[in-house]
TrEMBL record:
Residues 266-277 have a biased composition (Basic and acidic residues). The keyword Cell inner membrane does not apply. GO terms for biological process: phosphorelay signal transduction system; regulation of DNA-templated transcription. Residues 241-260 have a biased composition (Low complexity). Residues 4-120 form the Response regulatory domain. This is Helix-turn-helix transcriptional regulator. Gene3D superfamilies: 3.40.50.2300. Residues 229-277 are annotated as: Disordered. Keywords: DNA-binding. Residues 148-213 form the HTH luxR-type domain. The keyword Cell inner membrane does not apply. SMART domains: HTH_LUXR.
Length: 277
């Protein structure tokens, strides 16, 4: 059974054009509106496959929050965002919020139909800009050696906190609100993060941050090997968060990452020492 589609586009001519394209492609257009408030999202609860094609401008500044709320309230609905100004970081944030596709609004109509077909089958679809970005990465970046521990980058406390939010795909406005600082301070921290990581944009920074989540701290690992760290006495030691927020150092100090301790190696060393006694 073909998916039903809701269209939310401001321009009535574009709405009618999309309606005819989708109908000719054997999709059922259940509604066509000019504002989000006019949507009858209850339709998505009655249909196994329901797709919302929405204009980016209707989502306003808090687009990721709106998409996230829609996906939470209507999990069966699949959202396609059409934008007049492609933004790579915004695309990443929207996919993280649950969108199934994010494409420029000048996408050829046959390609748009193909996108609808893939989304109706449960697939998330990436625009060609993603491929262009991956191809543009230097070979050394694609096949680089494992990244160093977080201490090697010399991040300040605020920069680490901002980097954690970048890893979650949050825009500057959301980071500013979460941290209680102005957007100018967030922007300055992002600029410093990009410089220290040696990357060109926040998307690359977010990728590196996620890689660092499970990477043990080189300093902590060395202390564990030398036996300078006590073995936790609990059978299930607490797992470290993305970044250690327990530091009381000021923003001008360098913050240390709380990587995992190599407990198995410490236990092996203690067992060996016991046998040698």
């Amino acid at each position: 059974m073909p998916a039903s589609i809701s269209i939310a586009i401001t321009n009535s001519i574009i709405r009618e054009g999309l309606r005819r394209i989708f109908t000719d492609a054997d999709f059922e257009v259940s509604e066509s509106v000019s504002a989000l408030e006019e949507l009858n999202l209850g339709l998505s609860e009655e249909e196994v496959q329901h797709i919302l094609v929405v204009e980016r401008e209707l989502l306003q500044d808090n687009c990721t929050a709106i998409v996230g709320t829609m996906q939470h309230d209507h999990p069966e609905m699949r959202i396609i965002v059409l934008t007049g100004a492609f933004d790579f970081d915004e695309m990443v944030a929207l996919y993280a919020a649950g969108a199934y596709a994010y494409f420029p609004d000048n996408v050829p109509y046959l390609s748009l139909v193909a996108i609808l077909q893939m989304v109706s089958n449960g697939q998330k679809v990436a625009p060609p800009e993603v491929i262009d970005f991956l191809v543009s990465l230097p070979a050394a970046t694609r096949h680089a050696a494992p990244a160093p521990a977080i201490e090697a980058f010399g991040f300040r406390d605020r920069e680490l906190r901002v980097l954690e939010h970048l890893a979650l795909g949050q825009p500057n406005k959301a980071i500013s609100r979460e941290m209680g600082i102005n957007e100018a301070a967030v922007k300055a921290a992002v600029k410093a993060i990009l410089r220290k990581l040696g990357v060109e944009n926040r998307t690359q920074a977010a990728v590196m941050a996620r890689e660092l989540i499970n990477r043990p701290s080189s300093l902590v690992g060395q202390e564990a090997v030398e036996g300078n760290v006590d073995i936790p006495q609990t059978s299930h030691p607490p797992q470290p968060s993305l970044f250690d927020h327990g530091s009381t150092s000021s923003d001008s100090s360098t913050r240390r990452f709380s990587g995992s301790i190599q407990t198995d190696r410490m236990i092996a060393r203690k067992s060996r020492d016991t046998l040698l006694q």
